[in-house]
Amino acid sequence: MKKDNKKTDKQTQEIKYRIVVDAFGGDNAPLEIVEGALLAINKHKDLEIILCGDENKIKDILKGRVERVIIEHAPDVVSNCDQPTEAIRHKKDSSLVRAFDILKEREDVIGLVSAGSTGAVLAGAIMKIGRIKGISRPALAPILPTAKDSDVVIIDSGANIDCKPINLLHFAVMGSAYYSIIYKKENPRVALLSNGAEESKGNELVKETHPLLKEAPLNFVGNREGNDFMSGDVDVMVADGFPGNALLKGTEGAVKAVVSILKGSIKAGFWSKIGALLMKRVFKDIKNRVDVQGKHAGSPFLGCKKLVVKNHGVCKRLNIAASIDQTILLYNEKLNQKIEEAINHVSSKLKAIEEEKLKVGDKA
Amino acid sequence: MKKDNKKTDKQTQEIKYRIVVDAFGGDNAPLEIVEGALLAINKHKDLEIILCGDENKIKDILKGRVERVIIEHAPDVVSNCDQPTEAIRHKKDSSLVRAFDILKEREDVIGLVSAGSTGAVLAGAIMKIGRIKGISRPALAPILPTAKDSDVVIIDSGANIDCKPINLLHFAVMGSAYYSIIYKKENPRVALLSNGAEESKGNELVKETHPLLKEAPLNFVGNREGNDFMSGDVDVMVADGFPGNALLKGTEGAVKAVVSILKGSIKAGFWSKIGALLMKRVFKDIKNRVDVQGKHAGSPFLGCKKLVVKNHGVCKRLNIAASIDQTILLYNEKLNQKIEEAINHVSSKLKAIEEEKLKVGDKA
To answer: By 3-state DSSP, what share of chain A in percent is helix, strand and coil, each rounded to 5?
Structure first.
């Protein structure tokens, strides 16, 4: 008994990161979520995970693997059918709300990971944790592979509909800060999604946003069409959540359709079947690069006061482990401080431009 | 000599269709355009083509193949850099404007085919030819393959930005009429592009458009996300031109990226190279199905008083020939009459609903 106590003390001293995980969010919960958390626990010896959800079901999966794992019993579940803000308000015993309460109350908990309903996670992030000063709309920035060696993020990808130019400016600043941390790349190339590369093209929102991005301290490469999204020529694609979602989901659907056409065509011929066997590694490569169930982490809600990482509903254990990795990285690299500084900088610049305009107006 | 005259007379009697072609629009003009026209001439013995453009250059390509081909000399060219309405107004000697003038002036010319600047072709269609009564915004509806055996059209794909609900209703009606003719399918499945399948999702425009589509005499299957675009579960995807363009170009870019990743991965291994050789037919299949340079026709400007078919700038001779085929089909199947009838029907229905609402208002 004494030895056990000592061990616990030693562990407590060593814990550098505490992350809370919604064990019952997503299509493959709780198994894949819990196993993903355990992968992260094995990798990071200074990490403690708090798993929120039905205690007995979690214990069944853990099978005694409890080192640096704490269970917070929360028998209820928020589903995709629940109205997000209602769920956050009233489902107090759900795994997601309990996880948010822990993130909110405990200063030593650095972040939250969930594969639950996007709307509910966003509502929880805003209602329980709050926004970074100056940012009115936090945004999701999922990662996709490109035709070259680099990846691309899109911000916003569906959480924020009918945005204003200032929201898109904030998305650009947050996306750029996020990309530069996860890919260790200074001044990532930021583009504005439009229906043509020319400055004169675009809807009203794009036309009003373009000059703001030009003035901002960003590596703004101009307006780009959807076909540039995966070309490798853009690092951060900025868009209102509606066309952003169309672009993101459209690429997912296209990749799926191509694979499906490919499979059908392979099955239709003897030699192509042999060929496909020889190319097995190639197909595995492709799958790893483009599959949402690959090794990619989820996306943080950029602009939220604490780190909240949202995984795709169909994600598996590797994604959850990657999201936990990412939470630690973003914490160490001070993502939120960087965002706050960048937003302050942009705001003062905008203010200066406005004042300059007023002065010119006075003279005229 | 006498024999020749007789032959010409006989031909003139036999001509059922006259189509005017902008021989100098597109990246591969004039060679691919002229060769495409000749393919169509060989296929349809009752077709006459009027080729607009530099006479000597066209003659060089024709090399004496002049049966049922008429050249209309127009030495100037409208480029992508020209401001569309300016070009239509002032470049009177350009191949495109001359083609529009012929389409406008000659009742016996049933349609126009061009691979030139989208903006200029749209401007020409509206300024020279005009809109079908009741339709304020003609739209482009390009065709894409799906994971199943069917194709899908998207309307609008980029010509109409910042639309109103009534425009999207018209797009749905026109897209449905168009699809049912080219695929001989009654009641094609019409979906509204949104950021979630639920009726509650969408931006303001989608929320206002959804009930209109529900009431319209269409096979409306509800809101769909971008990943359903190429799934084969939708025939006509309706969208504002901005997200529509993001979706269309995003799928193009994704297909290109997958092929590029595939190629890179194949090159990296000996066995995969052998496998790829065995799968040559499969790759050709895919290319034929998804490539814009395949056999697909261009898209007509739906809602224009006469048939104006716009090809992709990079199109080749097979596309031009397919567009001419399509023009004949749409003419025979009376596309424009069908659109006009459908729009009238929808308008009276909308009016009746409005009146009903007013009555209810009176009673309240």
So the answer is: 50, 15, 30
Between positions 192 and 211 of B, the ones with CB within 8 A of A are 193, 195-196, 202-204, 206
CA dihedral B136, B297, B228, B208 (to 10 degrees): 0
The closest of A140, A27, A48 to A102, measured between CA atoms, is A48
Interatomic CA distance for residues A247 and A227, integer angstroms: 9
What is the maximal distance between C-alpha atoms in chain A?
Answer: 83
Count of H helices and E strands in chain A? 13, 12
- 3-state secondary structure string across chain A: CHHHHHHHHHHHHHCCEEEEEECCCCCCCCHHHHHHHHHHHHHCCCEEEEEEECHHHHHHHHCCCCCCEEEEECCECCCCCCCHHHHHHHCCCEHHHHHHHHHHHCCCEEEEEECCCHHHHHHHHHHHHCECCCCCCCEECCEEECCCCCEEEEECCCCCCCCCHHHHHHHHHHHHHHHHHHCCCCCCEEEEECCCCCCCCCCHHHHHHHHHHHHCCCEEEEEECHHHCCCCCCCEEECCHHHHHHHHHHHHHHHHHHHHHHHHHHHCCHHHHHHHHHCHHHHHHHHHHHCCCCCCCCEEEECECCEEEECCCCCCHHHHHHHHHHHHHHHHCCHHHHHHHHHHHHHHHHHHHHHHHHHHHHHC
Least confident of A294-303, A307-316, B105-114: A294-303
pLDDT of residue B290: 62
R_g of chain A, CA atoms, integer Å: 22
Q: What residue type is A9 in one-letter code?
A: D
Taking CB atoms and an 8 Å limit, are A242 and B195 in contact across chains?
yes
B136: CB partners within 8 A, 6+ apart: B166, B167, B170
User: Strand order in A139-140's β-sheet?
Assistant: A69-73, A47-53, A17-22, A109-114, A307-310, A299-302, A139-140
The residue in chain A having the minimum alpha-carbon distance to the alpha carbon of residue B157 is A195
Smallest Cβ distance to A286: which of B147, B244, B258? B258
**What average pLDDT score do residues A95-116 get?**
98
| pLDDT over 60 at B98, yes or no | yes
Chain B nearest-CA residue for A254: B251
Q: How large is the ipTM?
A: 0.83
Residues in chain A: 364
Give yes or no for A277 touching B (CB within 8 A): yes
Which pLDDT belongs to residue B294? Answer: 62
Q: Summarize pLDDT for A56-80 with one digit per residue, the tens.
A: 999 999 999 999 999 999 999 999 8
Burial class, B303, CB count within 10 angstroms (exposed 0-12 / middle 13-18 / buried 19+): buried
Confidence of residue B356 (pLDDT cuts 50, 70, 90): confident
